[in-house]
Structures are given as C-alpha cells and as structure tokens.
Amino acid sequence: MAKPLRVGLAGVGTVGGALVRLLQRRREDLAARTGRDIAVVAVSALSRGECGPGLEQAAFYNDAKALAAEGDIDVFVEAIGGSDGPAYAGARVALSRGLPLVTSNKAMIAAHGLELAALAEANGASLSFEAAVGGGIPVIKTLREGLAGNDVRRVSGILNGTCNYILSRMESEGLPFDACLAEAQKLGYAEADPTFDIGGFDTAHKLAILASLAFGVKIDADAISVEGIQSITLADLAAADELGYRIKLLGVAERTAKGVEQRVHPTMVAKSEPLAQTMGVLNAVTIDADAIGSLTLVGPGAGGDATASAVAADICDIARGDVAPAFGRPIGALEDGERVPMQRHEGGYYVRMSVVDRPGSVAVFAKRMGERGISLEAIMQKRSDMSASASGFVPVVLITKATTEASIREALELALADGVVREKPQVIRIERA
Amino acid sequence: MAKPLRVGLAGVGTVGGALVRLLQRRREDLAARTGRDIAVVAVSALSRGECGPGLEQAAFYNDAKALAAEGDIDVFVEAIGGSDGPAYAGARVALSRGLPLVTSNKAMIAAHGLELAALAEANGASLSFEAAVGGGIPVIKTLREGLAGNDVRRVSGILNGTCNYILSRMESEGLPFDACLAEAQKLGYAEADPTFDIGGFDTAHKLAILASLAFGVKIDADAISVEGIQSITLADLAAADELGYRIKLLGVAERTAKGVEQRVHPTMVAKSEPLAQTMGVLNAVTIDADAIGSLTLVGPGAGGDATASAVAADICDIARGDVAPAFGRPIGALEDGERVPMQRHEGGYYVRMSVVDRPGSVAVFAKRMGERGISLEAIMQKRSDMSASASGFVPVVLITKATTEASIREALELALADGVVREKPQVIRIERA
C-alpha cells in the first residue's frame, strides 16, 4: 500500500466534524478504494476544545493559515466558510505550497475561484470543490468528467434548500411566505437573517460555479441577474397549480446566441419536470446538453453528512492521484463569458395583475401587449374573488408565448400608465424543457 | 500538449457511429479538457463500407480481435455488444496487451466483468464501462467516485427504457400490455423478440454491475431473482394509482442482515418518489447511503448519442490518466456476496385476487394471513365491477405491512386450497423509501 494521505482540516464545525467521523467510519473501505490510508493528522480551530473525538492525536493550530503553511500534511481541507478571512488566507497559502485544496466553500469559490485555480495550476496543486454546490450531489464531477463529451446548452437547478422548503410548504400547507420562513428558521433551515438565502444570493454563488464548469467560461458572479422569492404569494402558487406549473427558485445558466445568460429567479416549471417534483429541502440540477439530452440529479443540498460525502469524494480522488483541472479545462482555456443583460432574456412569462373592473380594460391591456409583439398563450380572469371585485379591480393571470424581458416590461409600464392595471404586476419567468 | 490518445474502435453501429461523430464534434474542447488530442485511428467492422464519415484515414480491420492485437492504438473501445463472441475476444486480447478497455457492453460485463477486471489489473490496464448501465447517466462514476465515502444501503433503479415505456403508456393511455408492447416495437423501443427486455433480464445484467460497485461484492448475475412485467394488468395500474403508487420494473440491490439481496421485479413505488415520476423511456437510479441519504439520477438509458456521451467520458478519464479500479476496489478486495434467496425477502406486498363472493370468504382469507403473522395496511373490495360479481367472484386488493416473501406465498397457497380465492393472485412487492 502507498504511503498514507495526511489530511489537514481547517474548521471542525458541522462539515468538518462530519468529515472526521466519515473518514474514521469508512477508513478501511477508503483504503481499499484508494490504496492508501487517509487520516486527519492536523486541524485548525478556534480552540482545541472544539475538536471532537478522533482528533486527539492530530496536531493543533488555532489559525488556518498556520496549518496551511506549517502542517505536515498532503492535502488541505477548508471547512470554515466565508468568501474571505481565514478560509481564503489558508487556501492561498496551501496552494502556494503546492498542496491540493479541498473546500466546501461556495462563497470563496464564487469570489476567488478563478484566482485560486490559477494559483493551483501555477504550483502543480489541485483545487476541488464538489461540496460547494448541491451539497452531497456530485454535480461538479458530473459536469467536469461525466459529461465531458457534451456541449452543454443549459444548467438549471434548485440550489438552495431554504427557498425550496419555503415554497414547498407554502404550496402544501397554504401558508403565506412569512409563516413558512418563520417555520424554516425554527427548524434551523434558515438563518436569523435569511436575506442571503431567500434573496437568491446563495443560489447565485452556486450558479456562477456551475456556469463556469458547464460552459468553460470564467466565473463571473456579478454577471448574474438575481431575484429572490420574497414576492411570491399564495395567489401565484394557486395560479401556477391551475396552469400546470410549480414555482421554484431556479438558478439558470444558458448558452444563447447572445452569450451565456446567468439568472436566479422564481420560475414556473411544468409539473412533469423533475425540478418541479423536487420538494422540501432537497436540491436538484438538470443539465441539458447535445449528446446526453437531459440529465437530472436530485439529492441533499446541505447538512453535515451529505456535505462531508462530497468532501470525502474529492479527498479520495486526490488519494488516487486523479486531479482534473478545477473548472474542467486549464485556466488559459476558459473564455470570458459574454454577459447577457436580463432585458434581452427570451422566454415565456406569467403575469398576475389587478385590472380595473370595467368594460374594455383588458382590451387596452391586450393592445399594449400586441404592440410589443407579445402573443398570449393563456389568460385567466376570475370573478369569484368578490373582495377584489368590490374594490373595483379583478385579478387577471396570463401566460405569454416567448418574448423578451424588455418587451414584457415595456408593455406592463404602458398598461400602468394607461391606468387599467393597479400597482406593479407580478412577473414570473417560465422555464421550458 | 501531451501526445494524442489513439482510439481503436470495434463496432461502428449506433453507439460506435455516434462516438465517432462526438469525438469529431467536440475535438477541440476534449483536447482542452484532457490536454491531448483524441482521435479514432483504427476501427473494426464487418466491412469498410459500414464506416461513416471521419473514418477514411483510420486503419481498418474486419475482426475486433485483430484490431485489439495489432492496432497501433492507446485504448480499445468495444461497441459491438453480446456477452461473448468478437466483443469478448477483442476485450481479452486488448487487456492482455495492457491496453485500457472501454465498453458499453452490459451483457459482457455482467458475465465476464470480474475476469476482465482481473485481467486488467494483472496487465496494468484499466476497464471502464460507464455506458453499460443507464446509458448516458454517469451512475458508474457516481458509485465508484462520487459516493466513495458512503456505506451504500440500497441501489434501486429503472434500468430498462422499454419496460418503463410500456408501463408508462399502459398507465397514461389505459391500453393493455400487448398493445403497448406492439407500439414500443413499432417505435423501435423494443426488439422483435422482446423477452430480454420485458422479462427483466436486461435490468438484471445492469443491476449485477451496480451491486458490485455499490457493495464491493463480486458480480454474480445468477444471484438475481428476476420477474418481468408481462403479468401487469390495467387493473393493477388502477389499483396502484388509487393507493398512491405507480408500478415500475425496478432492479433493487440491498444490503440486509442476511447478505446482499438482488432482485428485479415489478414494484409499487410511492408517487412522491423520483423513481415513480420517471416516465417513458427514461432511466433513473436512486442510491440510499449513510452519508448522502438519498441521491437520484434521471436521464436517457439508451440511444446512440447518450451512450456515446458515457463512452466519451471514460475515454477522457483515460486521456487524463485517471484509472480508478473497475469496480471501485481492487479485485482482491471484492467480497463474495452472500446470496439471499427471494423467499427471505422482507417488505410490504400488494396482492390482487378474485375472492369468492359469499359471506365469510374474506374472513377465511384474512385468517390465513393472520396465521402467518401478516398484518394488513389497506384492503380495497369493490363491488362496482358487475361482471366480476356476476361470475361469483369479487376483486379484492390488499396491501400488507412488512412480512417475508415466504409468509405471503404460503398464506396465498393456503387460501387457494381453502377455495376462497380464484386462480393465482397477483403479487407485487412494495419498495419503501
């Protein structure tokens, strides 16, 4: 058997702790799989007391950077989190030393992944981040290796379990957004400040990483148009249901004639699609590509054990000596992705609005749509909602055929100016298979 | 750039032809990904005329074995099919020469995988067969690498698109088995002799491969209990629907206290499960394991392009120098899986039968179940079927709680002998998440 693989682990929280337990529990099998014993021989944490069982023999550092710089280790595993600070400092030092870096840190990879990959390349090290996207789902390996022969057209995914939990609960229990968010917070699925999750920013970090792997473009998190789920109402969910859709917060990266579109927004997904059937805290990613057609992976997007599963897989690859380029291709082969502004997005739209309850108001609105070349696929006008009617407005929901974001926004602006529509209409993009 | 990877391709049919086109179409990107140019430099086929565009410069052999033995190649790709014959002969010769072998041949791997892996190991070659299971779905890589840190509890999958197409059509169109089979044959989804598919044997081949990877046991296709879908009726599908299930032909390999169970049979799957939602010719595999929890992959299980995608991924791994052991662990580390006879299977059962339409007959039957310790979870007795009632029998459907295969079979034998049940009841196993 080859010499052991000595792991230096920075961070012994939920993910780090689960990893230590996994490596102990599976030690024999991992040695059989990789031909090497894999052991955590050094750790960093704020204090020795944080380290759980199994780390008694490990060298201790109270600083990730010191562990990376001085640890007698073969691989540096970063499980601290945060785009900068000790995680980033440790990562840079480890790669500069030529140590392979394994991380579960989506924020750091989204912000600094390109620079870290370049540093890895320059120092003959490797950079692995399976756990950064989709938790335990091996989506990075799938894009980088499993679908290596494919020209990817689109990657779309439910990448944030908190949002999916809230939307699933709203739909199944008929509870409004705020109640479901409070429930998610109580269950530990959402942070006290939930903005990062429900605002779509966590999804955007992960999407930026997937887009780079899928399309061979440089990571560009700032290129992503981001909308969260805060504005989704029970009325939207009910209308979606009636029209054969579910509403999911998707991250979508898509190659178009104009460049690579990257967007995060609540999305109407046909109920027959695997993404629509993914409920609760689960994550799912669908990859559409020329050879494979369509592939969907569904699994746990978070949690210590699932994330540790992904980290362990990266460690095993390193133990076997398998080090694919971090983003599938060498840094020099990555292209500058052409940013496509959201205004140029083409697709179908769901629009829900309050229309003035008088003859001809829908006609005025329809005319504005027609002027912008927008064809309607479906229109639902319900008079059953008496309170709405009594207020002088009736709810109207419509589904457009493919049009551009700019066209739909202009048509709605004009309708507002015409005075036939009350307030800002709800607009949700439709994603078709 | 490293020296080119010279591919020798045996077989230029659906898969081989699609592979040639893929390697040409993606040549530049594959070179960026692997650091090497990948080119088919030699082929074998029955005649030169079979070779499509792009193979004009390739050396031609009319015998796979000759290509494997004499070809000036770095990797031997077998796309002929069949467990023995030229595919097997070529594979053996290539591995004996120390050439990496890539194959899409599930029949050959199910029959000779262990021997070929040993041959590979002895000659410092590699054996790759991503395309042998689940077509384009990277399930081999996922089990071998992506979930390397997991203790797998169960692998269950829809592994035959023909069966899934037929069951999906029966359900959606209300057409009987024979009509849907004829339709599948017309569309080219089923062979003229469909026994291999609908009898469950194709699924069994694939399951044997997955079980070896999942549990580190030697491939043992003969250990698999196999039942096909021929006996499934519209009455079963209707009852399943009412009870919240769909019927799928699953291959299931499961680690139990008694050993590794391997079975292929029509299965009741709760509609909320991803496997139940997989319709048409799609394949899907769910892997339950300690760290990941549950992971499902859904995609195309057949077709030239999807299969070529998997073959290309294997070739890319070889080009990058990544050669994991064929079954995840070295041959010496694979265990003899303890065979578990189907009679010892434990689980819930669906039973549909015709019960004599007279007072007490259900009680007689229920007594027999009770004697064998079988608890019922649900019972449906419908008198709406007038023709059945007029015949003196009424259809009864019941769902049992967990029991053993032996118990349920005995209870049904006794009920038949009691004369309260007509003919052999329909028995379908229930798979719970």
Please give the structural blueprint.
Two copies of one chain form a homodimer.
Chain A: E1 5-10, H1 14-25, H2 27-34, E2 38-44, E3 59-61, H3 64-70, E4 75-78, H4 85-96, E5 101-103, H5 106-122, E6 127-128, H6 139-146, E7 152-158, H7 161-173, H8 177-186, H9 195-198, H10 201-215, E8 225-226, H11 234-243, E9 245-256, E10 259-270, E11 282-289, E12 293-300, H12 304-320, E13 346-356, H13 361-371, E14 376-381, H14 386-390, E15 393-400, E16 403-404, H15 405-418, E17 421-431
Parallel strand pairs in A: 1-2, 1-4, 2-3, 4-5, 5-6, 8-10, 10-17
Antiparallel strand pairs in A: 7-9, 7-11, 9-10, 11-12, 13-15, 13-16, 13-17, 14-15
Q: Give the chain pair forming the largest contact, with residue counts.
A: A-B, 61 and 61 residues
Largest sheet of chain A: 11 strands, mixed
User: Helical element count of chain A?
Assistant: 15
Instruction: Tell me the CATH architecture of the largest domain in chain A.
Output: 2-Layer Sandwich
Q: Quaternary state, please?
A: homodimer
Radius of gyration of chain A: 24 Å
- Please count the beta strands of chain A (DSSP E, at least 2 residues each): 17
The whole-number mean of residue pLDDT values of chain A reads: 94
The assigned structural class of chain A equals alpha/beta
Poorly predicted segments of chain A: none
CATH class division of the largest domain in chain A: Alpha Beta
Count of domain modules of chain A:
3
CATH superfamily of the largest domain in chain A: Dihydrodipicolinate Reductase, domain 2
Helix-residue proportion of chain A: 25-40%
Distance between the termini of chain A: 48 Å
Strand content of chain A: 25-35%
Q: Any idea of the CATH topology of the largest domain in chain A?
A: Dihydrodipicolinate Reductase, domain 2
Gross geometry of chain A: elongated
